[in-house]
Write a structure and sequence with these properties.
The chain is of the alpha+beta class. It contains 9 helices and 9 strands.
Length: 307
Amino acid sequence: MTVKSPALRFPSRAKNLRAHWAPILFSPRPDSPERIVVGVVAVSATGHHLAEANAWRRLHCLFEADAETAQLAIQVAFERMRETLAKVGVEGLTQFRPPFTGISLGEARIGEARSERELAEAWLANTSSLFDADLAARAAASASQDADESVKPVKGDRLPILVREYVEHRRPGLAQAFSPEFQAVGRKVRTPAQKVRIAFSGSVLVANFATLPARPSKVKIEHVKSLIWDLEQGRARDHYGAQRRFEMIVQHQSRDDPQITARQYETVLEVLDELGEQARLRDLAMRPYTAVPQIGDHLIEFERRAA
């Protein structure tokens, strides 16, 4: 019997490549058979791609406060999977060892598409309840427009400085990886308006930082999008772009923060999903965190593994 899916579009087989693909599964309860597809990985003899879920707000609807911890664990698992595939290629589908219980790799299958990315994203769209096709379409339409270079930096966001101070206390040498704009003591160093803004440039990780308030304004959202664009431009100019990972790191209030309402929190989650999709379309990562120590530890751990 042949099962057809209207959401899958298969081009001419003559132009297709064959690749293995497998879902990345999240088990929210150890004693339950429930499994949620949070990503799909596709790997061939020449490359690989990991497609991530883009509707994390749905995870929050299901598990509320526990969703923040779950999402962090899932993101760590994604990084472990990428590292494994980079080292051993298709063998990573059998050699992958999840960093946490509750994360597993589903059955590997063979598929055809024009690229590993197309194959992974097609099966993610067809197997994951955490994938929002409408969000992906809106982001794609937005990404096709030229970046608005007139967007001005949002003043008063101290997140990069706070992260630098945290890192400096725990690994002083790594503080030098932050932009001079956040190194100055007692004086302000301005970034030229036309210069690509990069807040952190480590040996394996490049990142920008932004705070998302309880009531994110259009100006703030556009500012974060412009930082994502800066990361894309920075990667294009970076001689080590193929080896380094580029991330947009966003801090937001947690669900149990008394200064944010339930409705405001839902709005923040929707904005985070939108920003995440903008980053994904540019092959960048968008990482949401709720505290400076989480961000600082992420930078330190990422750089430690490369040492």
